[in-house]
Design a protein that fits this description.
Layout: H1 16-19, E1 26-29, E2 34-37, H2 41-60, E3 80-81, H3 89-97, E4 103-104
Parallel strand pairs: 3-4
Antiparallel strand pairs: 1-2
């Protein structure tokens, strides 16, 4: 769910709050599911490089968004969305503005009429 909202997340951090103190520098790696507390300078530099590389990757993939949902051999398919939160409808609106019309899974929304209001 966090990834759908663009929020990095790491789960099952048993005991982490006991080992972190005010002022600690923390790296939250939501892609690999890691937390690094008070990283060494070379580790911090590595993660800054990874962060910039990921930002560029997302930027470079923007041109793919308006392309049709199609396999490499030309078979088109329908994209469907399994939404958990009403807030995820904003993502669907963004996709629709680019010419796609994903079909939300009706049972996943707590507000059944929200998908129709897109």
């Amino acid at each position: 769910m966090a990834r759908a909202l663009g929020v990095p997340a790491v789960v099952s951090l048993h005991g982490l709050s006991d080992s972190v103190q005010t002022g600690d520098l923390i790296i939250l790696d939501g892609i690999q599911g890691r937390v690094v507390v008070n990283p060494r300078p070379e580790t911090l530099a590595l993660y800054r490089t990874r962060q910039e590389r990921y930002r560029r990757l997302l930027q470079d993939q923007q041109h793919l968004i308006p392309l049709p949902a199609e396999t490499l051999d030309g078979h088109r398919f329908v994209l469907r969305a399994n939404l958990e939160l009403i807030d995820e409808l904003d993502l669907l609106k963004k996709i629709r503005r680019r010419g796609h019309r994903p079909v939300p899974y009706r049972g996943a929304l707590s507000d059944a009429g929200a998908a129709e209001r897109l």
